[in-house]
Predict the 3D structure of the following.
Amino acid sequence: MNKKLRYRLILIAVVILVSGVLFYKNRINLGLDLQGGIHLVLQVQTEDALEAEVDQARERWENGLREQEVSFTETRVTGQKVEILGVPQESGDAAETYLDGWVPNWSYQSRAREGKLDFSVQMSPGYRKTLAATSVRQAREIIARRIDQYGVTEPTITVYGSGDIPDQIIVELPGVEDFERVKGLIKNTARLELKVTHPDRALRGPFLSREAALQAFNNSLPDDLEILPYRDRDNTSPQDSYMVVRKAAAITGQHLKNAQRSQDPYTGAAEVVFYLNSEGVQRFGDTTGANVGNQLAIVLDDVIQSAPNINERIDTESARITGSFTPEQAQDLALVLRSGALPAKMSFLEERSVGPSLGRDSIVRGVYASALGVTLVVLGMLFVYRLSGVNAIICLALNLLILVGVLAYFRATLTLPGIAGVILTIGMAVDANILIFERIKEELRLGKTVRAAVEAGFGRVFSTILDTNITTLVAALFLFQFGTGPVRGFAVTLAVGLVANIFTATFVSRTIFTWALHNREVSRLSI
């Protein structure tokens, strides 16, 4: 046996061994359609993120202008525009210099009115588009972190949608049965904010109704304030009351470093403890130091959970959310806080639950279809090509072994369309062998020897097989790039099968013929 043939056989043996070990030691995950689970299509309300950015910008500009000793009468928000009203003429240059620092994200215009200047500051279209796209991307990453902590194996979480900014997120969770809990876990924005209440005790509340709170301001609430429900969990009354707080939050979820479920040492009730990062600790200290005697509302998803009094400056890095939580509720709340708050609210466009019985039925039918396809291919190859058909069968078996080995190694998710990809791979693998065998038969009819016919058959068909498989591989890559869920599963199995097919049809099959004809004088070939 020459060295070239020996090396080829060693390489084939290594591929068989590695593929077998990968398949044995790893597990192929089943997709949503095979083991059941949850399919959701969510839409990110990007306008929420834009409105929050405008409110925070107004708060920053108020503080910044005061630091620049620029006075103004008031500020107000109109849509996605901030108006700074009543700036003295002599402070106009200082105000413009300060606002110039926010270009190109914001643009402003000024106009004179009654001897003073009014500035209208608006978000630029490019910045608005960037913020919207960022909010969708952040939502997708946060949902992925929440699902990972929940413990779902191989979830599918992809951004999808039409228009300039795709704003839909497709979530597929195989093997999940607790539909309502997972749905609540995903849609919960868990937007934690610490907001200072109105400094006047008579105007901060709590009030029995929203109307009563408005009446305290003569039905004209300043636009830098808002009325939020106050859910006193320690009170036996189920009815919410209402408090007046500043619209801009002193501390938000972005200042969180960690959160975990805890237990009240005195009552044993479940609670959530959260920890602030260095910037959050600094802001916490500055806010409490400037508002001694006031109250600090702990707001979760626009509902005040508690409003403790500020007796002194607080520089601690931890705080807690108390209430009548069950241990599971406290654990879920800590999970969503730890993974980060969603930048905007989510709406559900589609909800679908797939039962495991449907998945089992799909598996059985898929296995039957694959087995039937392989059986028909094997019988057909043996009938048409006789002993040479055994060569094709060996290549087909190795092709499937490589396919399942690679899928297992990358922990790919096998879906029902993925099984269709496997069946298609079987057909294309045999197709390559048919091209080779038919070319060999033509060479034999031209009077060439068996060895020369085999060499010519593989040599002249190689480029055809390569072109065919690469063309299909490009199509599979496009399906993977632009498809979602099951379509990507089909593309993955098809792509891996095509690469394996090129190897088995052009390398393994040729090696088998070379080995069979090595040091032998063969006048006829069973083909």
About this structure: The first helix runs from residue 3 to 25. The two ends are 24 Å apart (CA to CA).
